[in-house]
Design brief:
Length: 68
């Protein structure tokens, strides 16, 4: 099974708590890694927070470091 994308674009907006984004990313990794191409399921909106994009990168890096 593969998952391509998966993170709802609205989770990058401050209308949603950051914990919702973190839970989503961690769950996707749990369910689909290593067969996962993680990305935003739609285009990030103009009100999307780029720090949240960086946070997703940090979560993925922490996961990948387990295998170094």
């Amino acid at each position: 099974m593969y998952c391509f994308d998966g993170i709802s674009a609205v989770y990058f907006d401050e209308l949603f708590p950051i914990e919702t984004l973190v839970e989503c990313v961690e769950r996707l990794i749990e369910l689909f890694a290593p067969k996962l191409v993680l990305g935003i399921s739609d285009e990030i909106s103009s009100t999307g927070n780029l720090e949240r994009v960086r946070l997703v990168g940090q979560i993925v890096n922490e996961y990948n470091q387990q295998f170094d």
